[in-house]
Structure formats: C-alpha cells, structure tokens
Design goal:
Number of strands of chain B: 28
Helix content of chain A: 10-25%
CATH architecture of chain A: Roll
Strand order of the largest sheet of chain B: 3-2-1-28
Shape of chain A: globular
Shape of chain B: globular
Distance between the termini of chain B: 11 Å
Largest sheet of chain A: 5 strands, mixed
Number of domains of chain B: 1
Largest interface: A-B, 22 and 19 residues
Strand content of chain A: 25-35%
CATH superfamily of chain B: YVTN repeat-like/Quinoprotein amine dehydrogenase
Oligomer: heterodimer
Radius of gyration of chain B: 19 Å
Order of helices and strands of chain B: EEEEEEEEEEEHHEEEEEEEEEEEEEEEEE
CATH superfamily of chain A: Beta-grasp domain
CATH topology of chain B: Methylamine Dehydrogenase, Chain H
Amino acid sequence: MDQHAFRIELPGPLRSYTNQASRVTVALPEPNPTLGAALSALDHAHPGIRFRIIDEQNRLRPHIQIFVNAGIERNLEAQLPTAAQIMIVAALSGG
Amino acid sequence: MTEASSTGAPDERTRANSVRLLIATRKGLWTLESDAARQAWTLSGPQFLGHIVHHAMVDPRTGGAMLAAARTGHLGPTIFRSNDLGATWQEATHPPAFEPGSGRTVDHAFWLAPGHASQPGVWYAGTSPQGLFRSEDDGATWTGVAGFNAHPQRKAWCGGDQDGTPDGPKLHSILIDPRDARHMYIGMSSGGVFESMDAGSDWRPLNQGVRADFLPEPTPEFGHDPHCVRLASGNPDRLYQQNHCGIYRLDRPATQWQDIGVGMPQTVGAIGFPLVTHFHDPETLWVFPMDGSDVWPRVSPGGEPAVYRSRDGGTTWQPQREGLPQAQAWWTVKRQAMTVDRFPTAGVYFGTTSGEVWGSRDEGGTWKCLSAHLPHIYAVEAA
C-alpha cells in the first residue's frame, strides 16, 4: 500500500518525546487524512505526545496552535492537503 | 501518614535517620537533604526545569517509588514516576484524564496520595478541576474513580469546573484509614469534606459544624472550602481541618466538627492554607495563619509570619516565630507547602510562594532559612 508522508515541525516543549528532533515525518495510507489522524500517527511513533497537546475531549489545548501549510487549523477533523506540512507551535501565552 | 498497623500506631519501621524534602515549584523540582542532626542541608536540582510541579512525594510505604505531578505552561498534565529516588524518571503512559464525552478536562493533577499499606502500588490523585483518580501500578496508568467522578450528586457538591480558587477548584487531602483500605476521606476547595466507606464507590458529605460564611446558608451540608485535612498520626479516628473559615477537629464516630480556631489570637485569626500533624503525637499540630480579610490578601497577618502550634488537639495555641522575620515579610504558604518529618523530635518545614524554605529541628521552637532563591513553591514533602 502506498504511504503518504507528512512532515511535522515541533516546538521545544515537545522535543523530549522525539529525542530532541525538531522535525519528524509520519506516514499514513491516505493522501488526505484528517489532522487528528496525523497526530495519532505522531503519537504512535512518539507515545504520550498527543495527550500533552490534545485533551481527553479531543480538543486542542489552549496554549497550542497548529499550522497546516502556514494556515491556522484547530479542527482535528479538517482534511489535510496532500503532503501538507504541519507545524505545532507553543503559543506566546502559557509560558 | 503512619505505617499501617491494626491500631494505626507508628512502629519500628518509621524510625528515621535522614530527611529529604521534595520541593515542588512553579519552575521545577528541587530536593533538600540532611542527616539526623538536621543542621546542614544540601540543595540539589532542578529536575523538570520549567515544568510546573504541583506535588511530589516518595512512597512512605516502601521509601522507593517517587511520583511528581506536573504540567508546563503549554502542555497538558502528566505524572512522572521514579523507582530510583529521582535518578531517572518515566512518564505515566495513561495520566489522569476524565472520560471522553464527559466534557471535562483535567487541568493538572494537584494532590498525590499513596494507597493503603496493604495495597502496594496503589496511589490516588486529586485533580483540578475536581476529580479523583487511582493507579494500581505505581503511577504508570491512572483510571477515574467513577464513584466520585460520575456520582449523580457531584455537580451539586462541587459547583462548576470554573468555580473556586484562582487556580481552579481542587480535590485534595485524600486520606486512607490505616485500619481499612476501603475507608477514605477527600477534601474539595469547592465542596467540603467527603467520606467513603467502600473504596470510593459512594460518598457522603461530612461538614457538620464547619462554617461557610461566604454562602447564603452559613452551615450548609456541602459547598465548604476546606484547605487541608489531615488524619492524626496514631489516632485515625481524629481529623483536623484548616478551612477558609477556621480550624476544626473531628473525633469519630462523631460527625460534628469542633471549632478549634477559637483559641487563636483575634489579631491573627484562624484562616490559613496548610495544617500538619506530629508523626508520633496525635495531639500536636501546626498551622500557618494568613490574612483572609477584606480582599483576601492571603499573606502573613500584618507582615509578621508565624507558625502556630497546639499540643492539646487545638484547645490552645502557641506562636512560634523565633528566627523568622519580625516585620515586612508578606509570605504565603500554600496548603501542600508545609510538612513534618518522622523524627521523635519533629522537624517542621515550610516553603513560601516567594521561594524560601524554612525549617525547625525542634518542633517549631526555632526557625532557620534552608534555601532562599527558589521559584514559587507549591508543595514541600518530607521523606
């Protein structure tokens, strides 16, 4: 089955989950998965990371922002463009 | 909490020869250590630099496992665990979290408590907003105590998740009867003291006699603001409570709390956050009064910090301020930021929100600053 790669950039607070890597790539079977599916794949590769940015009600936590191809996206059900680049940002608040 | 025995009395295993203070702060975790003399202290840390550590403690049942409840300014809550006294840490694989679909979100784990001595590996966590969670594997995974979290009366007891203290409402003071693992108490900053006889499956309020001056009905069944509740070591039928509206004592099987804050000087008052008890004497306890008047400054009354000790279960109180600043010291000591060690002559310790740790090796008779430049202190635990 073809795998589709999505690059995810990570802020400093999350790099303890990725051996300090600031950028990781996840592979999914669909070309346009949801943002939530990409983050679940991230959690599969780096266990525990998802709950630090998404709460138990499946909502993005308040001081975390996600950009998809440079546009803000907070809807985990949003479909990703093919080969979208995802950036997780720790907001200026919440320090 | 004392080691378990059929009567709840301390035993030989509690003999101490050193003391370690775990200092949980807004910017990480520090440790102060000393030997039995408790004269010279060594500060080490930080661990989890930049993390908001709400509470950290060593398992008193084994002296082995350590847990730390933490979050960061950006990231959600988690619990870290260590099996080598903090040399290395692992993160919980399933931290405390409310049920999907409940609409509730854990902001942070606030209060950690070991389970009964007969249940090694069992821990409890109280959260903000108010929830109760249990682990059976030394903090690796956590599940909600449905008997509280899903209790049909919970919302009536607690109010909304945004009600309560400036940092959010908290479930705290998780107490396990050393004689019976199924017998528990909890405190809630918005709700009061509650008791369970069946390991948390059901709960009932236990607030008779405690004032709630801020409510239209000043002596309601629930809705109170206990700040800290403790079991008297060696006498698990006695509870002490530092409440926003005074200091109280309860001797079971009675259900009516007695006001023991009336013995405090009127110029000082009976409001405070922490309350700690002597490990070997159920009649001795300490509080740290704060100014709860007007807009609730929550600092030492008049800028003159003092610990108050009672030797008779709260009937009379003695100020203890030798060695403390005598003026212009506007301290706040949070409810978890005071602790007592296990020596027969108790060491008493507290940490301030201005980052100072103070200690006494003579049961509060004299005080010395042990560390002066830490961040805002949330909790101090002696191990």
